[in-house]
Every structure is written in structure tokens, then in C-alpha cells.
Amino acid sequence: MPSAHRAKRRPSQRPAQPTVGRGGDAADFRTGMLDSNELTFAWRLNYIASFYSVPFYLALEQRIGISRPEYVILFCVIHRPGVTAGEIVAATGRPKNSISFAVTRLEKKGLIVRRPNHADSRRMELRATGPGRATYHRILPFLQERERRLLAPLSAKERERLGSLLMKIALNVPEWEAPELSALVQEPVSFR
Fold it and tell me: Cα 64 to chain center, whole Å?
């Protein structure tokens, strides 16, 4: 497309993809942000997670009507039948209201069932239905391929080491998950 046409693009039209990774200013900006800032590791993790998750779950919702929180629940109930919504919140860090809403939607779609625990009827267990398991297994190969492509630049030994390091960090989440901002003085912020 000639550059004159690009200049005339209406504000409501967005380009399909930014030029990140294709040379030019966006690639330089990306590399600079990933390589030199005060929060290099956190920025890199968030960058990777955003590009891994956001486009995939948006497309998944548009294609088959399963949102990210719904998939998270399916993943959990497949791997731990009888899990509760509260346990999913605790294990995933997803907001309680988001999980609660997604449980209701999955139940209405017939992908999970909610049943009282035999020993404690107040405890509502979640289990995948046949269609829920089928939906999970329909989506899984696409995420596996996405993960394969994500890790493609790494050797088998590097993947193993990265997996070990990420597990070490993940297991330490309870030590730092609650933000400690008590030393930050609360001041009015002016946005003018």
C-alpha cells in the first residue's frame, strides 16, 4: 500500500500488527525497553506473557466463544476434578468475580457442572462434562503449538533450565504477591 494511502487511513482503522520485530523504530524501541529499564526482568516476563496470551485468548473467544477465565477454569477442572472456584482463584491469581462469572457461563454452556462435596455440602466442586473435556482437548493443541513456537529459540537444555528457574520463581510467589506500598505516602494526583 503506498504511504499516501496510509496517511489517509481513518483514525478508527488500526493497522493489523505493529512493526515490532520487523526493523525500524518499533523494533528499536522494543529492544531498548526489553534491555535497559529499571525493571528488566518483570518487563520481559510481562512482554512475553502479553504477546503469548492476549492475542490467543482474544481469537479463542471470537472463534468459539471461550474466554480466558473460562479456559483457565477448564484447565483447572481437567487437571484437578472437584476443584472449587475459590481454589482456582488462589492457584491462578485471577480475580474472584472473574472466576465466579466464568464458572456460571461454563455451567450454562454445559461445559462444567457444580456439585456439593459429599463430606461438606457447602463446598461446591467443579467438574468438566464430556463437552467440556472435548472443548479443552480441542483447544490444547493450539496452545501446545504456541508454546513450541515461544520456546523455539532455546535448546533442549535451555528449555529445561528455563522451566526449572520459572518453577523456582513461581513457587516463591506467596513471598511477594501482596504489594508492599506502606512507605509510599498517599498524595493527591493531579492529571492536568
Answer: 17
Ramachandran assignment for 21, one of left (phi > 0), alpha (psi -120 to 50 degrees), beta (any other): left
Question: By C-alpha distance, which of 117, 109, 163 is closest to 136?
Answer: 109
Cell numbers at 191, concatenated:
492529571
pLDDT at 74 over 90: yes
Task: Spell out a b/e string for 140-169, using b for 16 or more CB atoms within 10 Å of the CB, else e.
Answer: eeebeeeeeeeeeeeeeeeeeeeeeeeeee
Tell me whether residue 20 is exposed, middle or buried, using C-beta atoms within 10 angstroms of its C-beta: 0 to 12, 13 to 18, 19 or more. Answer: middle
Query: Is the pLDDT assigned to residue 56 strictly greater than 70?
Result: yes
Q: Which domains does the chain have, with CATH numbers?
A: 64-166 (1.10.10.10)
Burial class of 59 by CB neighbour count within 10 A (0 to 12, 13 to 18, 19+)? exposed
Q: Which of 142, 75, 150, 63 is nearest to 106 (CA)?
A: 75
Highest-confidence range of 19-28, 62-71, 174-183, by mean pLDDT? Answer: 62-71
**Cβ of 60: how many Cβ atoms within 10 Å?**
18
